[in-house]
Amino acid sequence: MSSHEPVDHPDDPNAADQARPPRTRVLKGAYAAFNQEFSAIPCTLRDISATGAHVVFEGGWFVPDRFMLHVDIDGYKIECERVWQRGSECGVRFIGEKLVTGKARQQVLTPEPYADESIAVSNARSRPIFGDPAAPRPVQRHRPGGFGRRTR
């Protein structure tokens, strides 16, 4: 299939007549493998459904008509066919079965330190105030001249 024949393009007026499976908005890193999976292009999944996905490719890569989409965070790969392309974005249709490549990784968000304001306020009081004459001064060591430094 060539890139001049959009099949399921979002701007296609006939696409409204066809029932589409629900899409889920995602932001997942992936890569498109081609050339018998010896070559790969990094990409990002923007939305996904049971039958296809919206993929954004990094840089100005040429996107092949058929490739294997690897989604490491979910631990699978699936064969895809490009159905439309606009710049670095394209829509793909899944033409194969999901193949498990490994264990899906768990995405974990860790809270920032001092998320509780009472801890941050108590620690802020124990730090010296900028410009406080009673605060201890850092020890200044003489550094020998070197690359990029002016020597006297």
TrEMBL record:
Residue spans of biased composition, Basic and acidic residues class: 1-12
Report TM segments.
none
Task: Give the compositionally biased regions (Basic residues).
Answer: 139-152
Give the span(s) annotated as Disordered.
Answer: 1-22, 127-152
Q: Which residues form the PilZ domain?
A: 30-95
Q: What is this protein called?
A: PilZ domain-containing protein
Query: Origin organism of this chain?
Result: Hoeflea alexandrii
